[in-house]
Amino acid sequence: MPLGREPYRRLVMVGMITLHGLSAHAESAIYRVIDEQGRVLFTDRPQSGSERVDIPQPSAVLPVSRVAIGGLENDEHVEPPPTSYSAFSIVAPEHEATLPTGQAGDVVVEFAVAPALHESHRIQLRLDGEVRHSPAHARSLSLSGLVRGEHTLEAELLDADGKVLQRSKPVTLYVQRAGINLPANPNNPDRSLK
User: Fold this and answer.
1) Going along 7-146, which residue ranges are E strands?
2) Which residues pair with 113 in a beta bridge?
3) Are 97 and 173 contacting, i.e. CB atoms less than 8 angstroms apart?
4) Fewer CB within 10 Å, N- or C-terminus of the chain?
């Protein structure tokens, strides 16, 4: 059965009286009394058989000049991640370099990043427009098994949420691979016939 509004009004009144009593505590004393039914009552008027109750002064919350946040105090300098870098480029291989036959289409791509790559940022590598290497916190990434021909390398600098902050200037790379029909290739079927 739902309660009417009267109990809520009484509860609010009791709360207001209690708050008023606490604020007035500094000016008046509080007494503890046990009535005939054995109930404990508190009053600001002394009665026979009552005893004075010492209530400690309520504590006040004072503003503090230094608040600890995440284990660091707010006056300690925490470097925020940059939203852009002054330099971000592919430095190796050089633009229009040729990857010789002996490297079997394997290459290490190196990056220049200034200032230093923030710990929350990653670099991902695209080969001919497709992501070829997943994002990594590294200054170099390896590619292997590139087919012969012309390729375009491009690096993307990602923030902690995977959003692209910067893209490098594209680098063209030429890959030489030994064709099976070259006379010097040991896998040339014509060589085995001789």
Assistant:
1) 30-34, 40-43, 51-53, 68-69, 72-73, 87-92, 97-99, 107-114, 122-127, 130-136, 140-143
2) 88
3) yes
4) N
Domain-embedded: residue 61: no
Whether 109 and 152 map to the same domain: the answer is yes
Instruction: Give 52's strand partners.
Output: 31
Residue 38 CB neighbour total at 10 angstroms = 6
Provide the domain limits for residue 128.
87-175
2-47, pLDDT tens digit by residue?
Answer: 555 566 566 656 565 555 555 554 456 788 888 888 888 878 888 8
Whether 99 is in a domain gets the answer: yes
**Same domain (yes/no): 105, 45:** no
Distance CA 153, CA 174 (A): 11
Q: What does the DSSP 8-state code read for residue 54?
A: -
- The whole-chain average pLDDT of the chain stands at 76
Residue 121 lies inside a defined structural domain of this protein: yes
Q: What CATH number is attached to the domain comprising 103? A: 2.60.40.10
- In this structure, which amino acid lies at residue 34? I
Summarize the confidence of residues 85-96 as an average pLDDT. Answer: 90
Asked whether residue 138 is domain-assigned, the answer is yes
Please, which residues bridge with residue 13 across strands?
A: none
Length of the chain measured in residues: 194
Do 101 and 157 lie in one domain? The reply is yes
